[in-house]
Fold this sequence. Notes:
There is one protein chain. The chain is an alpha/beta fold. The protein folds into two domains: about 1-35; about 40-220, 3-Layer(aba) Sandwich (Rossmann fold), CATH 3.40.50.1110. The protein is built from seven helices and five strands, in the order H-H-E-H-E-H-E-H-E-H-E-H. Helix 1 crosses helix 3 (about 50-60), helix 3 (about 50-60) runs parallel beside helix 7 (about 205-220) and helix 5 (about 120-135) crosses helix 6 (about 160-175). The longest helix has 19 residues, at about 160-175. The chain is globular, with a radius of gyration of 17 Å.
Amino acid sequence: MDRTTKLLTLIIAALILFVGFEAFMVATIGDKNQPNPIRVACIGDSITRGTEYTLDLWALLGPNYIVGDFGVGGAAVSLHSDSAYMNKTELVTAKQFQPDIVVVMLGTNDADITLNESQASFVADYVTLLSEFRQLPNKPAVYIVEPPPIYNNSANLSGVIFAQTILPGIKEVANQTGLPLIDAYTPLLGHPDYFVDGVHPKAEGAQIIAEAVYAALKTSD
């Protein structure tokens, strides 16, 4: 990625943050002079929302893509959670975005020690969420991302629950649905120094996530 292209990507990203993604989306769809970029919807929690991961991914993919950040801080897969992604307006907006590709990275907040989520329930709720995108008329390609590890934190998120219940559950979701699985967990294992607070990645961690997603998307081209 040359400096000019990356700068252009960052300018567009800044515009989106200023006017709101929905307004930018409507303007882009309505402009008949625009080419037909490949639309990538990034679904997730605060590891996705407003972080450098989505910006880095867009920079890697280049100007033939539009990367939409539909992350929601605190979002979980579990329908037992008060912050279930299924109940967020971002789910509706993401579908209206008419994505060609959907990248889902959720599960971190399901490791909340107060949620007491079972693996079976987590899997069922995740499959239900994914069906929202798989049933879209344009049949987007859907990818599941294994989130990064959870280290010591003050957010009641358990690395043990994540590793023993949530992560195997994500693998089972991929097995049941036949959807491709992207590993953003292993590359960040043993690197608590890449995280701000044990949960949210610094720039180095965000770049690693973006590179893992980019590699999977380009392999499928």
